[in-house]
Amino acid sequence: MAPPTSSQSKPGRTLLALLALILAMGATVALQKAFVPKFGLDLAGGTTVTLTPVTLDGKAPPPESLDRAVNIIRARVNGTGISDAEVAKANDNIVIQIPGVGQSEALKLVSTTAELRMRQVLAVAPAKMQPQQMPTEAPTPDPGKSPSTMPSAVRTPSGAPSGGPGAAATTTPAGRALSSALLAAPTPSPATRTGHRSGAKTGAKSGARSGAGSDSGSEGGSADGAGAGTSPSPTPSPQPNDDDPLAGQDTSGIDPALLTEFREIDCTAKNRGQGAQDDPSKQIVACSDDGTARYILDKAAVQGTEISGASAGTDPTTGEWIVQVNFKSKGATLFADITRRITSLPAPRNQLANVLDGVVIVAPTIEEAIPGGSARISGSFNQVSATELADQLKYGALPLKFKQGSVESVSSTLGQDQLRGGLISGALGLLVVVFYLLLYYRGLGLIGMASLGCATIVTYLTVAVLSHNAGFRLSLPHIIGLVVSIGITADSFIVYFERVRDEIKEGHRTLRSAVEVAWRRARRTILVADAVMFIAAVVLYFLAVGGVAGFAFAMGLTTLIDIVVVFLFTKPLMTLAARLRFFAKGHRLSGLDEGRMGRTSPAEQTLQEA
After folding, report:
1. How many Å apart are CA 139 and CA 239, to the nearest integer?
2. DSSP category for residue 431
3. Phi and psi dihedrals of 522, rounded to 5?
4. pLDDT one-digit tens code per residue, 194-246
């Protein structure tokens, strides 16, 4: 008899490892309360959105632009291929079907162009001027009060421009490069700050810079303002018009038409220019995304086409959600050049605005040149909004602007009927397999049934975890793939059972040794068969879209689960069963009896040879 191997003598350890895996997955499902998987469009309903492209000349869009838009939208709504969202062309329109979301969420997800442009800030002001604020900011000077608390008494190092590197060095240590630079707060206007997305820990510094900008001006500012920076005057520099949002700001190099537009724009309106297609080669007027500030911005220094990737994460020091952006080679050079050029300019021209779909999402103060080819966008993000922005930037900007054609809710009535029919057919198929196992393998069929049950539990837990954490939605193609996997799983342990019976039929091995020898031979067959199935599923997944890709995903998933179950459950269970007298002695109900296997005794074999 062959000596027992470690796997033969200690199958309990393998079963305990599988049990630990199942308990861990079960605990994850319980903690996340993900007991019921999310369903796809055909089972849970959803939203169908029809988008009509809008071109500048009013003509039909180029086919290549429409195809690119379809691919980008498909990547956004179904980037992993498992959310069951579908995108297709219908003449010159694009039809998107998204499961389980409301109409507003669907429109926001698919219709934003997600074109990021980085522009230098030329001027900034609050969304609405408040004329009554100015008189209240001229109190009688108090000699005991710190000059830093008064709008017009900002200390500026000799020889350094106000708001330049000399001011930055007191609050932000050098050497943090991008991390510190992109967490600085925007400066909405002289002596006035807004609540637009900004880093809280640098807010005091931005206020100081704002005051410095009002005293000394930006490039080529007035001499009176410079003098105010050295003597604590009780009032701000007088301006001809207190209601002018550009009062005290440098307007050199700005298109006069933009100055008029800047004074008239209402950034508190509901439509603040979201989704507008701006010309990257021209200066623009834009609002902040929260409607608290308005900006005049220079030509785009870096465009979204130069982005190679984006990801959402948290700042390890502050814990706030940020979006990490990586640039291509050209984009990295352009970003380093613009940050190097504006870092020594006075506020607000040392701010770099990040403009997304026509609105400013953040306008940080740049304190030092930022090489390295990466940037961090910080603001009032949470996990959902940061991930959404990262996905839009990562999958690309739409080459066309779209208008809403129609938005309809999709009912799941037909899908529920199909689901019921699918579950019934799956249950009937499972019963047929179980009946065959018991009829042909008898006692061994119980091990096969236990393997099927284990595979069912692991599959359910895997689907539940993926549904809650990876956007997986269970649709009819997925269910079809899971039903087909019943035969794949059954085939694996049938191969093993037949190898065991073949070893016993030779008449020279006991059941214990036959189990081990048969496993070494059968596992090669099982791995080869599963490898072929998995490769086919992977190829189909990457080449197909929609329901076919969902079917391929389910097939690949269950193939991996089959390997786990056969190696961690069926084989150890067979090792334990070989130690039982019921199987070892070949009971007539064990499925290993001599009559069922046609095994001849040694005496009969000798007579036949004679």
Report:
1. 17
2. H
3. -75, -35
4. 334 433 333 333 333 333 333 333 333 333 333 333 334 444 444 445 578 88
